[in-house]
Design brief:
87 residues, single chain, mainly alpha, 0% strand
Amino acid sequence: MKDYIEERAINIAVYIIDNNATVRQTAKAFGVSKSTVHKDVTSRLMQVNPALAKQARTVLDVNKSERHIRGGLATREKYAHRNELNA
């Protein structure tokens, strides 16, 4: 694996852990795709730093388990905002 890919994988994992970030937020911050973020954290990072990979995976698992709640809150906010504009 190339050095810059290893470095990116480590930086992505640190970002996810420090900011409790989702895959989408991380992808946007690093200018890469969601697939790249997921691949970096799940497979590439396990080869470089397994302990860091497990920490990042824990954060992503929590985010995944909460995503249906976030989606509902976003929908509620969307329609609340629409109602304010139409009132």
